[in-house]
Task: structure prediction
Amino acid sequence: MNTLHLRWTLALGWSGERALADAQLVLVFGEHAHFRDAACFTELRARFPKAILFGCSSSGTVHGAEITDGDVVATAVRFERGRVQMASASVGPDDDARAIARTLAAKIAAPDLRHALVLCDGLSINATQLALGLSECGVPVTGGLAGDADRFVSTWVMADAPAQRNQVALVGISGDVAIKSTYCTGWTEFGAERLVTRSAGKVVHEIDGQPALALYKRYLGDLAATLPASGMRFPLSIVTKDGEHTLTRTLLAVNEEEQSLTFAGDVPQGSRCRLMRTNLDSLVESADEAAREASEGEGSGLAMVFSCVGRRIVLGQLAEEELEAVQRRMGPRMPLAGFYSYGEIAPIHGFQACDLHNQTMCLTTIRE
Result:
């Protein structure tokens, strides 16, 4: 397995080695309008005529242990014993994302399928339902929701064609390939456990029979004046109704008139919930622990990073310390590539089934 990294900037265009023309997969992440220009796809297609070009817009790209903005980063992968295939679809906010995920999963099915990578529009798709459908792939699935820095205006996916909005793409990796994945949070629950008594999808109207926004404001105190921005520092922990696992949800918006909260993923009515908080050391330490788990194995390869834009916002200038901790643990033979997302998709700890996560860093290592 060989990898090659390229970077596009407005000043220099594409820079990097000119090899791996026979790469089978090119991962492309960009925080610049050039990513969604058809020229970006055309330029990469000329360099990698045989590859599946697979990527999305970002809220920052991962280029080794560095976070870059205003650029496009491409990582070409050539497998010796692995194979890749892709399926994609256009999905709108009213479409059945779960059913579409099942259809895509069927298209990449193979007897020796090891793993699937997923990227999707970060604004128009119900990613909670998408993840539920992808859980029927029969293998672990990891990936993320396309980003748009901190603008939340439009997100784009490149699915072996010029980048488009409202897209979901799934790449299956088959053959003699070793893949591990895990995720970390670094957040701690606090306060009393409460019950979500009225919600609809991502919108929570009542908690313990009280207006959800009023309850949040009481917990945040003076920080409530800067909602929803301060909500990034106080995500919600939810325990699903079956009690099997806990998920983290990031606050995205508040509605003063309805006294409701809108989160980055579904918060089912009947879920138990608690607020969460963290410190910067805990976030970095959790990333190091996740890297230790995902790095177990032999040989060189690629470590893919799907990390939440909320983590980047909370960490601020210390965000690269998190990547540096991961790179130290992975070692020089496992370069990092990835992006900051509007949500992460990964298997729940102890389960093969995947779900939508917020405020996490998801790591996926690929080796032959």
